[in-house]
Amino acid sequence: MASTIRNTKDFFSGLLFTAIGSAALVLARDYEMGTLLRMGPGYYPSVLAGGLLLVGLICLVRSFRAEGTPIGRLAWKPMLLVVVPIACFGILIRDAGLVPAIVLLVTVSAYASERFSLKATVPLALGMCVFSWLIFIKGLGLPMQLLGPWFGF
Amino acid sequence: MELLSNLGLGFQSALTVQNLLYCLGGVFLGTLIGVLPGLGPIATIAMLLPMTFTLPPESSLIMLAGIYYGAQYGGSTTAILVNLPGEASSVVTALDGHQMARKGRAGVALATAAIGSFAAGTVATVLIAVAAPPLAELALKFGPAEYASLMLLGLVASIVLAHGSLLKAFGMILLGLLLGTLGTDVNSGEQRFTFGEPRLADGIGFVVLAMGMFGLGEIIRNLEHESTREAMIKHVSGLWPSKADFKRMLGPIIRGTGLGSLLGILPGNGAVLASFSAYSLEKKLSRHPEEFGQGAIEGVAGPESANNAGAQTSFIPMLTLGIPSSPVMALMIGAMIIQGISPGPAVMTEQPQLFWGLIASMWVGNFFLIILNLPLIGLWVKMISVPYHLLFPVILVFCAIGVFSVNNAEYDVWLMAGFGVAGYVFSKLECEPAPMLMAFILGPLMEEYLRRALLLSRGDPLVFLQRPGSLVMLLMAAAAMAVVLLPAIRKKREEAFQEEE
Predict the structure, then answer these.
(1) Residues of chain A contacting B51 with CB distance shorter than 8 Å
(2) Residue A153 — very low, low, confident or very high, per pLDDT cuts 50/70/90?
(3) According to the model, what pLDDT value does residue B501 have?
(4) Contact B461/A at CB under 8 A
(5) Confidence of residue B164 (pLDDT cuts 50, 70, 90)
(6) What letter would DSSP give residue A115?
(7) Is there a smaller number of Cβ atoms within 10 Å at the N or the C end of chain A?
(8) Complex ipTM, two decimals?
């Protein structure tokens, strides 16, 4: 497969665009199209989705024809170590409070770097808690709790 | 003269202690974060946006504008000191600026950038004050067809300056427009693409999208290639340029200001184009073109003036027409909408103190830049040397809290995480995120205008070609696309982007 697909970036871009475009087209069929005079909710998205689908197909075709630079590997470790704690942050800040949320986010994401050191990260996490409390809760008055319902507050 | 009274009104509001402080704060924060590695101006502004929501509209816009040119200046500082341009319009500054730094003239380079930016900013502010009222009057004559075509022109122009493949940039625009439709349709109340999820009923917040794709995405990319930074200039002395330096600066500053002011107004990222063009112009006009790339002061003065002038005049289409000329302006429009202001020609007449206050504060901001940054050089140098592996968790916390605080919604934080993945994947696929952001913010507006235009024309799509204003803009858009696709320009574009890498 590596030899027939000349431009992997174009190929996967094309795949992505085609997939999203067709999915959107299918979903938009549930919405009324209306006419040009009175456009229904489905009109505009369908046109856009159709265009996206077209662009995706052209990208796919192009990927077989012209040479391109390789994508390289996907950096799973940094990606997951950044994205997962952020996702958890959302839940934690509401239920467990700002402090656990920050501590988790800082320590887990810091691990994504090759230069990770627990000695530097723990004080950084605690420092961020103090800093955030000062700026966001005291300074800007945002409605966040330092420690939340899970801890009985 | 009306100009003077308008400016007077503006300064009255810009010079209140409160607004002065917000301007100062914005400029300081903007430079601080702009100097940090790995955060471009879009991510910077997206990150600091939520903090401005609690402020009154005038102050929040003043602060945001301050953050904008602060971040620009921060980008120039890193370009000169570390040869790592913070953002696209600083790329050219790095070429000669860093060479000057290597020869021990870092201070002079930084001062030149500051002086050039200040001069350009002053001229640009006056230009805005002069040009805005007639433009706004023109805009009041615009109907929905003209607006729709103008938005299309803006989107097309944003592709012109996008990296990489035009086709994929176009795809990103369509994707952005499509994502913009997610949520409740204003006209029919139908929920589009929400899968019955009530938290998506209002659509995706633009702060969520911007921070996810630009902030998180960039961090992940930086972590992928953790590299040590180039030998950095640690000691900066001799800030003041010599008389000879001033003489050499004068011409480039004047030319750069002119070029930047003109290009900034056009849709598309004028500031970037302006800095590249100013560099080429100075090189062509110089009696010693071989000096360029080795530390020619003209190579710093011209582009810096151009990009600051461009950055300021790019507010014009935003303030008078309500059309963003760049992704950063799109964020500003988003901020205005959240503050309850509908950007457009009406703002000038309905809220004159806001409009002129913002313009006056631009000059104040430039003033702060020049008096702040030169003494604070030591601080910026320290900030640049903060190790990235300690810095990025801090940025992540700010992004997370920032996004959460907009709606007090953990759902937004999840969405941001998802867009972080998307941003990273798109960057691997060489699909530009900036056109997508602009399209996302403009999308729903464009749909509105399209609908109205077709309603008024009783369903006749030819109305876009029949109304002269609309026709002109569509022709300009077509011309822009044609120009970019021409082989000669294609090559030059690739060269320019090669230089960037």
Answers:
(1) 140
(2) low
(3) 47
(4) yes
(5) low
(6) T
(7) N
(8) 0.89
Q: Could you tell me if B20 lies within 8 Å of chain A, comparing CB atoms?
A: no
- Please answer yes or no on whether A59 and B168 come within 8 Å at the CB atom: yes
Residue-range definition of the domain harbouring residue A128: 76-151
Mean pLDDT across the stretch B477-493? 71
Residue A2, in any domain of the structure = no
Report the gap between the CA of A76 and the closest CA in chain B (Å): 9
B4-62 pLDDT tens trace: 777 787 887 778 888 888 999 888 888 888 887 767 778 888 888 888 888 888 888 88
Contact B405, B199 (CB under 8 A): no
| Partner residue facing B216 (CB), from A20, A86, A120 | A86
What does DSSP assign to residue B230? P
Residues A57, A85, single domain; the answer is no
Whether A147 and A126 map to the same domain: the answer is yes
- The string of DSSP codes covering B456-487 is HTTT-TTHHHHSHHHHHHHHHHHHHHHHHHSH
The structure tokens listed for B142 are 């615009």
Q: Which domain holds residue B104?
A: 2-500
Mean pLDDT for chain B overall: 83
Q: Do B410 and A78 touch (CB under 8 A)?
A: no
Which residue, among B418, B473, B426, has the nearest Cα to B168 in the 3D structure?
B426
Contact B396, B420 (CB under 8 A): no
Tell me chain B's radius of gyration from C-alpha atoms: 22
Cβ-nearest to B188 among A40, A72, A116: A40
